[in-house]
Amino acid sequence: MHTQEMIAAHPHVQGNVNEALLRCIDLCHDCAQACTACADACLGEKGVSELIQCIRLNLDCADLCNASAGIGSRRTGSNQEVMKRVLEACAEACRVCAEECGKHATRHNHCRICADACRACEDACTRAIGTIKVAMH
Amino acid sequence: MHTQEMIAAHPHVQGNVNEALLRCIDLCHDCAQACTACADACLGEKGVSELIQCIRLNLDCADLCNASAGIGSRRTGSNQEVMKRVLEACAEACRVCAEECGKHATRHNHCRICADACRACEDACTRAIGTIKVAMH
Amino acid sequence: MHTQEMIAAHPHVQGNVNEALLRCIDLCHDCAQACTACADACLGEKGVSELIQCIRLNLDCADLCNASAGIGSRRTGSNQEVMKRVLEACAEACRVCAEECGKHATRHNHCRICADACRACEDACTRAIGTIKVAMH
Amino acid sequence: MHTQEMIAAHPHVQGNVNEALLRCIDLCHDCAQACTACADACLGEKGVSELIQCIRLNLDCADLCNASAGIGSRRTGSNQEVMKRVLEACAEACRVCAEECGKHATRHNHCRICADACRACEDACTRAIGTIKVAMH
């Protein structure tokens, strides 16, 4: 990923990057891919009927990770409250998806790996949220 | 939009649709389109340099509306807390985007129309949130 | 949808809208919703194992409809060749999804409705493609 | 990115991964991020009015990279013709975006880095397309 270089090159950032937010963007991309692939791998399993809640949570999590990666990548102007809320929603989506994937981790490697990606992304979102200063309004 | 028909045909819904959530899905699609088009129209204006915060908020709002429309369209299994949080983030994105677009509404028709779409979507999100029951955890 | 109003208000369009492309944007939003909801409804069916190809095609089609709606909504500058190609990919995604959904239409209403939405979107994409002039390169 | 591990864990893949398509997924994520960030960095430049075509192409390219990453990540069932076409559209979006970003590369580091990300993604899409066997129809 060129995330670090790209954000550092922003005219308003000028090298003064928010490392926690950078890491969050990268892990949102990773988690979006993992959840998309896990939903599809679950769909390909013989026991798909036991994995439908897992697929549902995977798809929701991928949607939020994609939105968070986009919003987290913008530095022109300001939209702190929205960035905070989308990352909070994303952290929760990751948390519940990791929990569900964890239930199938011993039987399905894709669920085990996806649970790891979700937990890492949840953690990165939580750390990034801690760096966002929201103005009073 | 076939939203009403599609959700009513879901095996777990069986015609017992949540009207507020249906309306929210449709208005999220409408608002995503309006915000994408408003960002692009602002970019085409001679006075683009005065519209950069507007473009930023438009793009963030479109990302959240698209995620909300996807997540709001799922009825298999359950993901209530995540649905609630993404709609809250979406309502806030719509609120701040409508506020900013409103500042340019007398000069730019696209900002005026987009502000209307954002306010309608914010309202639909808020009403939909009111119908979501979140289990204790 | 505010699509007509939004595009007509673009500074470079000035009311001279491409009706076929407008219709295509709206039907892409409709088809994205239908495909997202059909994938989820299929997932909720007892006979989900017979619907896995349908879910796969639904998810791919939704991804392309969302991308097409975004790209089709931009009028600043020019990107005709890309717009043509994404609509061609989208038309093909709709065609194969309609064909697969059609196989399950008598048993599942969501597949019947989704097939209709896909066919309408395929047709709208094809008509829109016919209006795009691509410069030599 | 967990892409390699995730795809290898798919029940139909069983370790027999398509390396070119794996690489394409990762570079689509990288390019989506770079294009989103470049559009936003251009928007923050004083000379934004000279960068509006660049922003337009960046946003279109990000939309196609996101769609391609999603579609490229699925292995259940089959949708080869659609996968081929979306990667072709994506390669073209990357090509024209790299060309435009290249014009601003000496003045803006974000355009230089983004052009690199686009060229790498175009190359990865082209190589992946070469591995897709499309059935007659």
Kindly describe this structure.
Chains A, B, C, D: InterPro entries: Csp_YhjQ, YHJQ-like. Chains A, B, C, D: This is Four-helix bundle copper-binding protein. Four copies of one chain form a homotetramer. In chain A, about 70% of the residues lie in helices and about 0% in strands. Chain A is mostly helical. In chain A, helix 3 (about 50-70) runs antiparallel to helix 4. The radius of gyration of chain A is 16 Å and the shape is elongated. The N and C termini of chain A lie far apart (about 35 Å). The relative contact order of chain A is 0.18.
Topology of this protein?
4 copies of one chain form a homotetramer.
Chain A: H1 3-8, H2 19-43, H3 52-72, H4 80-103, H5 109-129
Helix pairs in contact in A: 2-3, 2-5, 3-4, 4-5
Which stretches of chain A are poorly predicted, pLDDT < 50 over at least 5 residues?
Answer: none
On the 0 to 100 scale, the average pLDDT of chain A is 96
CATH fold assignment of chain A: Substrate Binding Domain Of Dnak, Chain:A, Domain 2
SSE-based structural type of chain A: mainly alpha
Q: Percent range for helical residues of chain A?
A: over 70%
- The name of the CATH architecture of chain A is Up-down Bundle
Overall shape of chain A: it is elongated
Instruction: Summarize the main sheet of chain A.
Output: none
Strand content of chain A: under 5%
Number of helices of chain A: 5
The oligomerization state is homotetramer
- Rg measurement of chain A, Å: 16 Å
| Number of extended strands of chain A | 0
Succession of helices and strands of chain A? HHHHH
Number of self-contained structural domains of chain A: 1
Largest interface: B-C, 40 and 41 residues
InterPro entries (chains A, B, C, D): Csp_YhjQ (IPR005560), YHJQ-like (IPR044543)
Pfam family, one (chains A, B, C, D): Csp
Protein name (chains A, B, C, D): Four-helix bundle copper-binding protein
